[in-house]
Structure formats: structure tokens, C-alpha cells
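quick one, three chains, predict together pls
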Amino acid sequence: MFALVDVNNMYVSCERVFRPSLVGRPVVVLSNNDGCAIARSNEAKDLGIKMAQPWFQIRHLQRQAGLVALSANFELYGDMSSRMMSLVGEYAPRQEVYSIDECFLDFDGVHGSLAAIGGDMRAKVLQWTGLPTSVGFGPTKTLAKLANHVAKTEDRKPGTYARPIAQVCDFGAMAPEELSRVMQLTDVGDVWGVGRKSSARLKGQGIQTVLDLVRADIATLRSQFNVVMEKTVLELRGTSCLDVDDAPAANQQIMCSRSFGAAVTNLQELIEVVSQFASRVAEKARDQRSVAGAVHVFVSTSPFRQNDRQHSPSGTLPLGRPSADTRVLIAAAVRLLAALYRPGFNYVKAGVMLVELQADDQVQGELDLFSGMDAAAEPSAPRDPSKLMGALDALNQRFGKGAVTVASAMRQEPANSNNSAGGAVQSRQEWRSPRYTTRLAEIPAVRT
DNA sequence: TCTGGGGTCCTAGGACCC
DNA sequence: TCTGGGGTCCTAGGACCC
């Protein structure tokens, strides 16, 4: 039996832990540039705010409906997440952390009432972290996901399923006819793995509900869609195709990209920001002990600025030898950028991606053809990049992000503020809360 | 004025091989 | 006029997830 545990409205719930006055009010958390709503409280959902809806379309609700907007505080959410995950992980032999706010648990071989265990989990996470969670159990991951969805829906809109569903929803303990009824009352698009496109196509064929999908002909679906759809249907029927993955492999790609606070046309500013991104992906690569075989860079104008000429080039540069050295990756990224850049365009976004990643201890060796030859002919490759980069990471760990950085990732001209990363490229973040749990200086004060 | 930032997997089609 | 029959590998693009 599998469980899916997730935090209700994760980012908003994290904020409410430290600002209880936000409980009961419509709250949204905004994306990096205060651009869109990426998390919504139930009250905000009730106002009709959609996921990823642009802020300028809903800002009037501040006055009209008392909507509160907060800038994303990922440092806080990440820390709250690891607290929640470690608590929940105690309950089952295997745990797969699936995203920042949810995990699968494998309860194979665990005895006792799952509903009781689930209730205990929720109570403990709530008491120890302040975060509200939902729990779903099912004989497959897809069913556990669905059970979780059902529990959450019932919590938010009681009566949806005619007969009440417990706060912890266990499909394993449900009579078959009751499970069918629940499936009949659930939209096919709510199934894990059925996205917008597939949902529309399925509905075009008369498959509206989860029950319709379960009863559809699997061979036909396989030929019309793909193996993913086939597995989804098998899982909904109780045949487990997906296992809990408690030792996920290292990422195959590492990306850092961002929209700018304002459009940028100047190459020098782009070089700075691309250098910062390259520096960040280099850190991430070293963190998972990988080296990259190639660097990919893109910049783009805004499709929303209809009067602007559009230009969104991208390119990939293979590295002679795989590397996670910040200097090597910045140099490659900047070279690419210079080749992609055209003057006169309003760029609003850029990104750096590392691809062809491999484990840093499995890099193919090289025959040193230069040894004994003209030393000046050899490219000035770093002698022992790992040592220097290790020191860099240690310093930044101890003294805070950005304490030591490569010069090209810094502002080239005196910044007009005391923030070294200022300028047009700087993200807007008007309403970010303190990083209560990860910075001593921002720890909440308790009055006595 | 103002529109997120990460990732994964699958498939089709082209290049290339013998 | 008539033009084989297998394979593999790579890439771009699409769909999906949160």
C-alpha cells in the first residue's frame, strides 16, 4: 500500500505559520519577479484566482477583497519542507520526496490501521511544524494520489462525494462500489498524468470521469496516446506500475533561469546575469557531484510585448572536458551569449542549463599530448579545479551565498544601491517575509 | 506598466550503418 | 519502367509534473 502526503497550499501555509493573522484571509504567494500567483490559500481560490495567474490581473482584489500578496521566500519553504519530510519519513520504511510539498511512502509490510497512522501523521506534522497536510492511501501510486485529491476536495468542499470521506482517505479500505462512485464524481483531468491536452482529447471521446477512463479499452488508449496513458489506466485499476523511488538518481540537467525586473538590451548587463546563472548551476552540479559535458544558454524577448521585435536565440557549447568549475562554465556561457546576442532587442529573460551531466568520479581520462612539448601551447586549464571550487563552496556555506564570487558575475559599474546585484536584471520582490528558520538575524522575536 | 522556474519521459523522424 | 531490409543513435518537440 502506498501513501501520498502533501502540504495544503504549501507556500501560503508556511507563511501562515509565522503570521497567524493571515489565517482565514485570501493570500497568494507570487513567483520570482512578483509576476504570477504560484500558491493560493483556499480563500484566494474561492475568489477565482487561477494557478500562475498574472499579478496585474488580480491586484485589484487587494482592495476589493482584502487579498494579501507575498513574494516567494524559497529559503523558508525549503527548510519547512525538510522538517515536514523528516517527520513523515519516520512512518514508513521507504519514502520518495516527490516535490517540495509532497512525498510518497511505501507501507508494504506495515500493520495496523492506515487511517489511524495517517491521522497520527497529520497531527504530528501540524503540531511540530504548523503545516496542514492531506493524506491518501491506495494500492498504487496513482490511486494514492487520487485518494489524496479526494481527501483534499472533501476537506475544501464538504459533500462533494455525497457520503462524507474521512480526512485521511484510504482507497484500500473502501468498498468497490463506493470507490466507483468516487471515481464517477471525479473529473478525468484530476488524475495524475492526465494533463490539459490529454484531458481535452479524452473528453472529446466521451471519457469525462475517472470511472470512464478506468472502463475504457486499454489497447485503444495505448494506440491513441502512449505507454504513459496505458500505465496510468493500469494503475487506476490497481495494477502497480510505478514503485517508490527512495534513491533518486542525480539530475540529468541543471538549469537556472529568470525573468528580469525590466527589459535589458545591453550586452554587458546580460553577461553579468548569465555569469551569475552559470555560477549558480556550477554550484548545483558540484552539490550533486556531477560535471557537465556541455553548456546551453538562452535569452528571450517577451511574447507579451507585442510591439517589440522578437528574438529568442539559444545555443549549446560542448566543453572540451566535462567540468563543474565555475570559471570554465562562466567562460563557456559568456562565449555562447556573445554569439547569440543581437543589439536592439528588449530581452526579458535568460537562462543557463548544464547538460550531458555525468558523475565527477567517472570522467574519461585524457592522454596528455602536451606534456614535454611547448608548455605555452597548453590551454591554461585549472590545475586542480576541485580544490579551489571546494574552498569556494565552503566559504559561501560559512559566510552566506555570494560571499565569494567570480568577478564577471558582479556589477561592472558602481551600483546605485547597496545591493551588488542591483540594476534592471534584479528581480522585484516587494513583499518577501523574513527567512525565519534559516537566518539568525531574521529569527522571529517573541515578546514576553 | 505588469505574465514562474524548475524538472522528467516519450515519440517521431532523420542520419547513418551494413 | 523497375530502386532492400533491417538496425541504432541522436535530436527536437511535446506532454506531463509541481
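Confidence is low (pLDDT under 50) at residues 414-422 of chain A.
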